[in-house]
Every structure is written in structure tokens, then in C-alpha cells.
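Question (not urgent): is this output format expected?
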Amino acid sequence: MRILLSLILLAIGTTAFAQDDMPDFRSKKDNFSKMQEKEIRADLSRFTLAGIDEGVGKEPLKSLPITSNTSNAVVFEGNDIKVEVKTAAFDPSKHKIGYSDKYVVKIDNKPFFGNYGAMPRKIIQSVTVTMGGDTVVIPPTAFVDLYEPILAYDSNNKSQNGVYVSPDGHKLYIYMLNREQVGNYEVTWVIQDKKYLRRTVDTGLLK
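Got this back:
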């Protein structure tokens, strides 16, 4: 799988926007390449597309299976851990839409990921995590600027998303590969010792 992804990435190169005149206001501070935490970076390289070069030859992390997948929610569950991601339709009338020429570049004054340049259709409504009976709070700021989530890509609930556990058991990684207008984007939410720590976001990946 990793070799196949490498070949695909090599084929498409570093995808740029087809519309050369569309500005990209999105920050790169959450990119995988900016991550300084060595252990977390090493873990993420085992399953993210942005870290694929650094992850060559590494053993995959343990993952949680999908136990439920509907049109608007997916649940990963196992080892006394439960992760649920819910989605909903995007209602432009409830938001301030910012344009640059004909392109949608900001929502509620913030650059966004997911169908960037056009009007999104879906939002991530919530990310709920319970570990050993304790609820881990994932703040809305961790996903409010992320749109066009993809929960599964066929009727058999196959998914390119996943929930992974670090080798030391102290960190949990929630990964989603989502739709972008040109090249998809990926996000990983990092939980450490039952507390939300940070996220990584990279764009311009697989078409």
C-alpha cells in the first residue's frame, strides 16, 4: 500500500492549484514538515501521506477497527477506546463567506480546507473520544476550518481514515483523508494521555 501511494505521489508531483490566479491564504504551521516533536513525527510517518518518505521500512501502528459507518457518522472502537466522527451539511446562509474574485477563500474570516476555492458542502460536526470511560474534549477549533470529510469510499465501509495507537500507548492519532478541489488534504488529531494536544494538516496530496 505504501509503495503504491509513493508511486501515485510521484506521478502527480507536488500538486498546485489548477487556477493560478486563486490565492491560498491557509497557514502551513500545522504541516507535518513543521512538526518538532520527534516521537509523534515518527509515529505519524507510519500512516500519513505527508510523512511517507520518513516512514519507509517502519512497522505500522496498531489501529482500531470501524464498528459503525453511516452516511453522516463513523465509529472506531477497541481496547476500551471509542472515537466517533460526525458530519453534517454545510449551510452557507449561516456563515460569512469571503471571496477573492470568484473563489471562496474564507469562511467566517478564516481560510479553510476542503473544496478550497469553491463552496463546501459538508462539515465535520463533531469528534468525540472516550478512553477508559473518560471523555477527551476535542475543541471545535481543531476542526471548524475543515470541510468535505469522507467517511468511507464504498458500500463495504472501506475507509482511508483510521485511529492509531502509539507503541507506548500514551498517544492516540485520529486520521482523516478528505476531499479537496485539486488533490486531497489529510488531518491527524493528536491525543496524549487523554488530552487533546494538537493537529497536523497537509494539502495538495492525492487526487
